[in-house]
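Write out the 3D structure for:
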Amino acid sequence: MRLNQEQKGFSLIEVLIVVAIILIIAAIAIPNLMRARMAANDSAAAKSLHTIEVGEIGYSAAYPTVGFPATMPPLGGASPCIASVATGCLIDNDLATNSNGNGKSGYQFAATGSASAGSAYNDQFYATATPNSNLTGTRAYCVADDGVIRLQPPGTVTLVPSYNACLALTPMQN
């Protein structure tokens, strides 16, 4: 046996130390990544609600005898889209129909148009953005025909149930 023999490879202790360091870094980074993803989903939901709101107003202006559509699908339309009362071609059809079943960016979207007392057409609407779970978003959002995006308190991920409930929420600060 030689005393100056070169050592090849790593010892078990060295490998375990490297694995432990990698696990510690992952334990720190993964929660931050999840928070960043949820913040991005929240921003995307607010932007999508703004898109729906602009589509609703455009639809009401284009079809004043109808007013706001009763549901969201008439705001979209399959490509190539030809504008009509049934297909307004005002927003992306995937957003208008929630076509993939999971919504967009971890949120489900809905819009409801209705007639106020004494009105012959749908003169009010509200749209909602609700997280699929508390892992995809931090709160639910809504917008009404006044164009103000409102939000539930942080951690409230339930659907805003009505037009009046939407109007009672706190406006989003930009």
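Residues 12-171 form one domain.
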